[in-house]
Fold this sequence. Notes:
- This protein has 238 residues and is an all-alpha fold.
- Helix content is 71%, strand content 0%.
- Helix 3 packs antiparallel against helix 4 and helix 9 packs antiparallel against helix 10.
- The protein is globular, with a radius of gyration of 18 Å.
- The N and C termini lie far apart (39 Å).
- About 3% of the residues have low confidence.
Amino acid sequence: FAHVDCLVEMASRNKFVTVEGRGPISRWRHCATCHQQFTGALEIEMARRCWRYFRDTPSRVDKCHAGKSLAGVLATFGELDVVERLHDEAGRGVADDNLILSMEAERARSLVKLFRPRDALEILSRVRPRMELRANAHVRIKYNYVMSTTLAVLGRVEDALPLTADVVECARTDQYGPHSAGTLNAMDFRAVFLQKNGGFEEAKVMLRHVLAARTRLLGPNHEQTRRTVDILRRVAAL
């Protein structure tokens, strides 16, 4: 695949454009031209290189983000043995409340990928009071994403629906704005949960809005636009 050393050089020299304001880690996970996320072996290798680059950085924040990014990728691809250790090492010495909450949400996300949703729910339930008191909009969105997914895996889609509504509202009003890619992602996410809970008409209305906006912003051939088309077709067929 692509010359990884070249991609690493570009990312380390800040030549990548950040994606949705996600900071320096996004440069290691997305194409500089189209902003689509790396996948497969390239995604794993770039996550490993990112962790090596930031592991000894003076910035605990960048180290934390790099570690949780790699842990999430490895959990997706089933490399179970190092995920917990990565979360522990990446979070060591972190004092910022929002960063700690973000780390715990990422740890829970990894546990869901490792088929341990009850352990994930335990973590999320433990930190929920702190999240409600102290979390900024970005962390609140992440927490509710992960909690919704965890509840769905446990068969509690109805309990997850209010959280998905909060994700959309927080994305639209507090974090990204009404027409941003982040808000469209949130609407896409909620539509899937609506469909799972039998809210087909509301899901179709939301997906049509997302499809029109993504076609306008990204073009008809972008992977996110095509994915929305596929989801809408499935929902319309029900």
